[in-house]
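User: Assemble these into one structure.

Assistant: Restating your components, then the assembled model:
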Amino acid sequence: MTLNVLTFLFIGASFALYIGIAIWTRAGSTREFYIAGGGVSPMANGMATAADWMSAASFLSLAGVIAFMGRDGSAFLMGWTGGYVMLALLLAPYLRKFGKFTVPDFIGDRYDASLARGLALLCAILISFIYVAGQMRGVGIVFSRYLQVQIEWGVLIGMAIVFCYAVLGGMKGITYTQVAQYCVMICAFLVPALFLSLLMSGHLLPQLGLGAQLDDGRTVLQTLDEMLTELGFDPYTQGQRSTWDRFMLTLVLMCGTAGLPHIIVRFFTVPNVRDARESAGWALVFIALLYTSVPGVAAFGRINLIQTLNGPDQQGVAYEAMPDWFRTWEGAGLIAWHDHNGDGRVQYAAGSVADGGRPVFSGERGEMGERLLSNPSSGEFDPTRQPFASEIYIDHDILVLANPEIAMLPEWVVALVAAGAVAAALSTAAGLLLVISTSVSHDLMKRTLRPNMSDRQELRFARLSAVLALLLAGYFGINPPGFVAEVVALAFGLAAATVFPAIVLGIFCRRMNSAGAVSGMLVGLFSTLAYVIYFKFMGGQEAQWVLGVSPEAFGALAMVLNFATALVVMCLTPAPPESVQRLIDNVRIPRGTRWQ
Amino acid sequence: MADQSDKAALYWKANLRLIVISLAIWAFVSYGCGILFRPLLANISIGGTDLGFWFAQQGSILTFILLIFFYAWRMNTLDKELGAGEE
């Protein structure tokens, strides 16, 4: 069977499963649509949370980021898992006790103000939209690579599937599909990871393989450090970021994770507070299955890649002798080659092959059939640091997709990875769409504009806004704004600088009032937006960074500003009313959480 | 009634104490071992690399899992002791 047929089979079978679940779990009330009826078991919710959380970025890009950044990538590993400790300790149990449907619900009731609710609503929608466009794009890329359909068709097929279970089933449909998607995704990640680890290190588990000794007695990481140093890179285990920036980046990723609305709402679906705490633990167990395998996959992938490109003698391999995957990805524009020294060999080393980093293809083919670049770099290099100039561009995202092919694993593994990538993108997209649709139907319509609406009408609005959000997400998937990659960091920064402090202060600071929380959120929102826009789009220079914090990490500083502003304003304004005090007492004690 | 609110205050105090302890461990393994103290841990070798790198890529995640279950377990006990949990 060819790879194409296999991929069709794997993706087709997974889609049939999702649609089956969608039909089985249609939502009949707003409670089912928003929080799956509130009766999801902690373990199932943990699994669904893991699928919700691990997006196309976790599945496809994370291993690539670690492989190419080495130690600098650790911030993502710690940040994206450490956030769950904060969720379990500082947010989930209390929000579950509060017992309503959304994040703006809590902020609006706690601060007793429609201004606070509106601001939280704006942040939730902004964060979710930034995130969802990238997911639809991820679906499109996988389809176009493996099924040779246009990216547009890939996005449309993905939209149709999400429509089936998100619009019909709401949270109920999403929860049970996400459980299935988690299983598909984790198999798709672990099968090649185990193969690769066994192949390279002799250990089945990549967690152990990472620390293994190779045949020559050196460890995997020592080998990698030496290989990279010889090619002019920084050693894998060192990294370039300053300690301070590394610290701030980890902080923003942790607090951002804890403040993401689509993750928080998952904890509204379990029966009681006890289950909410436990559920966060299960979520992290399921996430860690993938995240602790990633460093191994990354290290093996990088070694494998260097060996394949530079050959056993480390002098480069003739372009004609490159394996098939090399040309496939070159065709997709994710690999590029420019023969600086004219020896017909592919050579990989430090430095960029293209001016400005990204290659621009001229549309013509060279003598050997390679795609020519219109912006090759000068090809200068420091002979004391590396043996040759780099002639290769490699997109970080292809590492996970190309790994099975580079390691020459059987074709069904490649097809499985494709199905896993689609599952990862779809599960996250659905969770985000639900946040957008509940924000509109519940927080905007029911709680603000039309409080007298019946449950049936509200459900109709929820479905309608889910459809609109899906269409908009699909549009951005097909016509991606060039800045998607740049602004994903913004989603975490915004969550950390707005939603997270407002909720934590609402639970732990009895005296915190509406004026304090609103001014804190405003400061967090606008400082993050201004900083990212200035440094990403208006040509701000590294020398101008405030306190040496990169735009990716700025959310941490904005969060501190938010806390500080909120506390100062709180001291200058009156304490919240008696009704709010009762609400605080109520969320702090688990007793009496059962749904009526 | 007074007894009830006393218990609630006691419960909250115990909860805060547990949160502070857990977050201290959380910060120690991630920001401490993974980032700030790495130079100090450079000579301790584990899993083919130094302890700091291992904590940053593996150890902190494993500690996080243990922490959440530890907190959940302690809080469940506390819920029972002070009658704050579900009947």
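The beta strands of chain A are 317-318, 335-337, 345-346, 361-365, 371-373, 392-394.
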